[in-house]
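[step 3/7] inverse_fold.run input=structure_tokens len=158
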């Protein structure tokens, strides 16, 4: 049975990586309750709207099971949400979830839209030069959801 381990939101902050200032929403803070809208969680945003975000990427999920793998490979503790995800969940790995799957999270209905194609911000944020390459090679990328209102789901089921 899938279960949420961590829920997180964050607004973009300026980071200084390799002597270059970059605006990013990867640094998120855990929260207990948050409202989900069509474009994402209230209080959550991305730094680069050309390459990130959008209604088909309103929620990012990263499987909790992957954390132990990364901690072993990187030989360090990974603090949630190390991959900039909104939801860290158990029982929802890329092998268990398919594009098109529909889930209920609280009062929200969400649908898996695509696998995540991460960028180098993951490496910079975690101070691991080759992390992005390893994430892509292993396909341990996580995935995105779009938000559906319950009324829409009821209409589709009729």
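[step 3/7] decode complete -> sequence:
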């Amino acid at each position: 049975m899938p279960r949420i381990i961590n829920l997180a939101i964050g607004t973009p902050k300026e980071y200084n990586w390799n002597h270059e200032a970059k605006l990013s929403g990867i640094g998120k803070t855990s929260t207990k309750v948050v409202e989900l809208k069509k474009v994402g969680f209230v209080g959550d945003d991305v730094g680069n709207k050309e390459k990130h975000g959008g209604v088909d990427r309103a929620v990012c999920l990263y499987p909790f099971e992957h954390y132990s793998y990364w901690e072993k490979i990187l030989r360090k503790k990974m603090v949630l949400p190390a991959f900039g995800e909104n939801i860290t969940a158990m029982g929802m790995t890329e092998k268990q979830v398919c594009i098109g799957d529909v889930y209920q999270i609280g009062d929200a209905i969400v649908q898996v839209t695509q696998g995540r194609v991460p960028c180098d911000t993951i490496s910079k944020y975690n101070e691991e030069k080759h992390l992005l390459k390893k994430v892509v090679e292993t396909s341990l990328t996580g995935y995105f959801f779009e938000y559906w209102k319950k009324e829409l789901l009821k209409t589709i089921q009729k």
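[step 4/7] annotate
The chain is about 20% helix and 30% strand.
The longest strand covers residues 108-115.
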